[in-house]
UniProtKB/TrEMBL annotation:
<feature type="binding site">
    <location>
        <position position="103"/>
    </location>
    <ligand>
        <name>ATP</name>
    </ligand>
</feature>
<feature type="binding site">
    <location>
        <position position="113"/>
    </location>
    <ligand>
        <name>ATP</name>
    </ligand>
</feature>
<dbReference type="GO" id="GO:0006241">
    <property type="term" value="P:CTP biosynthetic process"/>
</dbReference>
<feature type="binding site">
    <location>
        <position position="58"/>
    </location>
    <ligand>
        <name>ATP</name>
    </ligand>
</feature>
<keyword id="KW-0418">Kinase</keyword>
<feature type="binding site">
    <location>
        <position position="86"/>
    </location>
    <ligand>
        <name>ATP</name>
    </ligand>
</feature>
<dbReference type="Pfam" id="PF00334">
    <property type="entry name" value="NDK"/>
</dbReference>
<feature type="active site" description="Pros-phosphohistidine intermediate">
    <location>
        <position position="116"/>
    </location>
</feature>
<keyword id="KW-0546">Nucleotide metabolism</keyword>
<feature type="domain" description="Nucleoside diphosphate kinase-like">
    <location>
        <begin position="2"/>
        <end position="134"/>
    </location>
</feature>
<dbReference type="GO" id="GO:0004550">
    <property type="term" value="F:nucleoside diphosphate kinase activity"/>
</dbReference>
<keyword id="KW-0963">Cytoplasm</keyword>
<protein>
    <recommendedName>
        <fullName>Nucleoside diphosphate kinase</fullName>
        <ecNumber>2.7.4.6</ecNumber>
    </recommendedName>
</protein>
<keyword id="KW-0547">Nucleotide-binding</keyword>
<dbReference type="InterPro" id="IPR001564">
    <property type="entry name" value="Nucleoside_diP_kinase"/>
</dbReference>
<dbReference type="InterPro" id="IPR023005">
    <property type="entry name" value="Nucleoside_diP_kinase_AS"/>
</dbReference>
<dbReference type="GO" id="GO:0006228">
    <property type="term" value="P:UTP biosynthetic process"/>
</dbReference>
Length: 134
């Protein structure tokens, strides 16, 4: 089924100039990028974006990292995009992610794990709405 998913390249990916390479992977795989913008996040949007992680021990560290530079927010469309993009992204902890995945190839630590992708249809809808409505 053709789906849309939300992807964000995190500040570490932008600073390391990995944007082009990562976008290329999604295009090479056959996905369409249907929306794209660079944003500097603030506390208000981060609270909504990462609400589910509030109170966890890594939350403050995560929020300050996500404010350390712009992110590239994208909507990616294609066959089973939610599952297939997550497969390309790899495990949350880059040192556990398989080589050949984006985090496996470019990441080494958290919270700076290069990229985010929605984990379900509900998250995709919520995140697309949060970043691309208005
Ligand atoms: P992501 O899955 O995109 O969204 C939640 C983020 O929290 C995750 O990527 C990491 O950037 C960060 N994160 C998750 N677990 C940890 C952890 N144990 N320590 C630090 N950061 C984490």
């Amino acid at each position: 089924m053709i789906e849309r998913t939300f992807v964000a390249l995190k500040p570490d990916a932008i600073k390391r100039k990995l944007m082009g390479k990562i976008i290329q992977r999604f295009e090479d795989k056959g996905f369409n990028i249907v929306e794209m913008k660079m944003i500097l996040l603030d506390d208000i949007i981060l609270e909504q974006y990462y609400g589910e992680h509030k109170g966890k021990d890594f939350y403050d560290n995560l929020v300050s990292f996500m404010k350390s530079g712009s992110i590239l927010a994208m909507v990616i469309e294609g066959e089973d995009a939610i599952k297939n993009v997550r497969t390309m992204v790899g495990a949350t902890k880059p040192w556990e992610a398989e080589m050949g995945t984006i985090r496996g190839d470019y990441g080494l630590s958290t919270p700076n794990n290069i990229i985010h992708a929605s984990d379900s249809l509900e998250s995709a809808k919520r995140e697309i709405n949060l970043f691309f409505k208005n």
